[in-house]
Amino acid sequence: VRCFTVLALESSADDTCAAIVNSDREIVSNVVVKQHSFHEQFGGIHPMHAIWAHQRHMPGAVRKALHDAGMTMNSIDGIAYTRGPGMAGCLSVCSNAAKTLAAATSKPIVGVHHMQAHALMPLLTTPDISFPFLTLLISGGHTLLLLARSWRSFQTLATTPDESIGNAFDKVSKMLKIPWGKLGPGAALEQYCLNDYDQQLPEIIPPLPSGQPGKLAFSYSGLHSGVERYIAVRNGDLDDPTKLALARAFQTAAVGQLEEKLLLALHWCRQNGVVIRDIIVSGGVASNKFLRRRLEFACRDFKFDDAAVRLVSPPQELCTDNAVMIGWASMDRFLAQDYDEYEIETRPKWDI
Ligand code: KG4
Ligand code: ZN
Fold it and tell me: Which one, 69, 81, 121, 288, has least CB within 10 Å?
């Protein structure tokens, strides 16, 4: 079979992305234009400005993806884009660009589910993974524990009814007034926790609330308001050691909840006769190194038929939003000639 080359576009949140991937598992080019520092002044993603930024950046991102690959549109066999979920206005930028480009050049399109793409990324980067596997999707939009049975079949084992872990990281980072720089608020908090002071840090009591113990469900709003209260009763006045101790207590509690739920899910799989070899940890928050270490430690003794489970994370730059994952997740549909119509609409809300 001839190698199939996909141009993929992504603009569901605050990054404008274009990439070229092929069915021989090659990442031919990967362009990500970030808006982090720009949104800092608004204290979050400002919807209208995000749309404008996508509109400004998308043409250049597509040109650069082709240029970096040394290709023209003639070498592209199909165009993939993020159909949802995400902010409606943002989604329309990559959707319109992809569909118009495809219509003008008579190429097939596939609209991709953003979270499925996050979940499937490791099948590109780590070829010896096989179904079924567990996926922990932790990003600004989602906190999901999924059982992936095939390319198109995902079962949600745990999700959050309130706030995502990425959101909690972002809000706490802002409450503690940690500067983001180029990192973004979540990564800045992780970095901040690595600070060291000569003084001993105060102990943060009472312990921060964290989810519902024993239940296969996440919850991060309690943890986030726990930090908020802690700061509020001190009139926002924290000295540096207290601020650092609070940041670390938050990060430990946030990750502790993931540890607990992951073990619960492994037990659930065992009880239901599902043999798991791999746990995929992906999404923006998965780039947190403290988190990866803690999860590895938590799972080290869990075995199915005497075989240990393996914790797999895609390379950092493929954990955060990118178009490579969109192109890769579209591949099985392109190869099966299961294309979408040019008329299909975006799906801002879309169950996995
Ligand atoms: O997957 P992603 O890039 O975008 C979507 O939400 O789809 O995830 C972004 C989220 C943000 O909340 C960001 O602050 C968080 O991931 N994040 C981190 C780290 N790097 C990114 N949170 C904690 N530690 C990090 N190192
Ligand atoms: Zn994402």
Answer: 69
